[in-house]
Amino acid sequence: MKNHVFSSPSQAAAVILGSPINGRQAWKTALGKTIAEVEEGVS
Global pTM? Predict the structure, then answer.
């Protein structure tokens, strides 16, 4: 496995899924919160 730094969550998600996607909505924490929810401080 090789490490790679992406410029955005969307770019990382697109590489994994093979198509464009909103990474702020696609990535989730272990508790099921999206990046957008974490950034907005949603409980």
Answer: 0.75
